[in-house]
């Protein structure tokens, strides 16, 4: 009789873990939204709401299996503001496209928490300062586009050799 509760308990645990993970992604994205100072087309203002599942938000792609955010594409949204460090909590993110907006400030070093990141497009903004060296430790990163910003500093010679072995 006691064993009949095991499948139910397993479902409840799995549901709670999935819900907590989705909540982490939602909080990270809401933090990003909160640092946006201008959204003239209302794309995030009207679409990124706690009343809608994260996976249905404009610019967000989630995995079918675990409903975690795997891609964020907010390019060409005409957004202004900075990027919240909480973006580094999107730990299943594989592709991040922030290009062709009006983002300012520094590139958050928290992006280095995105160990699965394969593509980072942040060109055609107004990011300033240096590129955090920790970003170059993401071994899965294949595309790194930071062109047309106000960045300074050196790019390590080893960056071109960054490959998975």
Order of helices and strands: HEHEEEEEEEEE
Radius of gyration: 18 Å
Distance between the termini: 50 Å
Helix share bin: 10-25%
The strands making up the biggest β-sheet line up spatially as: 1-4-6-8-10
Category by helix and strand content: alpha/beta
Number of helices: 2
Strand content: 15-25%
Task: Categorize the overall geometry.
Answer: globular
> What's the mean pLDDT score?
87
Biggest beta sheet attributes: 5 strands, mixed
Q: Based on the structure, what is the oligomeric state of the protein chains? A: single chain
List how many beta strands DSSP finds.
10
Uncertain residue segments: 12-20
Explain what you see.
The protein has 165 residues and is an alpha/beta fold. It has helices at residues 5-34, 43-47; strands at residues 36-38, 60-62, 69-73, 80-81, 95-97, 102-105, 119-121, 126-129, 143-145, 150-151. Strand 2 and strand 3 form a beta hairpin. 23% of the residues are buried. The model is unreliable at 12-20 (pLDDT under 50).
Summarize the structure.
The protein is built from two helices and ten strands. It has helices spanning 5-34, 43-47, and strands at 36-38, 60-62, 69-73, 80-81, 95-97, 102-105, 119-121, 126-129, 143-145, 150-151.
Q: Which terms summarize this structure?
A:
10 strands; 165 residues; 5-stranded mixed β-sheet; globular; 2 helices; alpha/beta
Secondary structure topology:
Elements: H1 5-34, E1 36-38, H2 43-47, E2 60-62, E3 69-73, E4 80-81, E5 95-97, E6 102-105, E7 119-121, E8 126-129, E9 143-145, E10 150-151
Parallel strand pairs: 3-5, 4-6, 5-7, 6-8, 7-9, 8-10
Antiparallel strand pairs: 1-4, 2-3
């Amino acid at each position: 009789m006691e064993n009949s509760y095991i499948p139910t308990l397993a479902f409840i645990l799995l549901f709670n873990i999935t819900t907590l993970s989705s909540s982490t992604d939602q909080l990270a994205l809401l933090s990003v939204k909160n640092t946006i100072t201008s959204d003239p087309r209302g794309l995030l203002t009207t679409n990124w709401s706690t009343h809608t599942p994260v996976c249905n938000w404009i610019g967000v792609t989630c995995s079918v299996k675990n409903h975690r955010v795997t891609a964020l594409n907010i390019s060409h949204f005409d957004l202004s503001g900075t990027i919240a460090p909480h973006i580094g909590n999107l730990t299943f993110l594989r592709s991040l496209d922030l290009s062709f907006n009006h983002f300012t400030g520094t590139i958050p070093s928290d992006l280095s928490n995105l160990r699965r990141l394969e593509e980072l497009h942040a060109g055609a903004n107004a990011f300033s300062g240096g590129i955090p060296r920790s970003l170059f430790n993401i071994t899965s990163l294949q595309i790194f586009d930071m062109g047309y910003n106000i960045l300074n500093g050196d790019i390590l010679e080893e960056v071109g050799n960054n490959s998975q072995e």
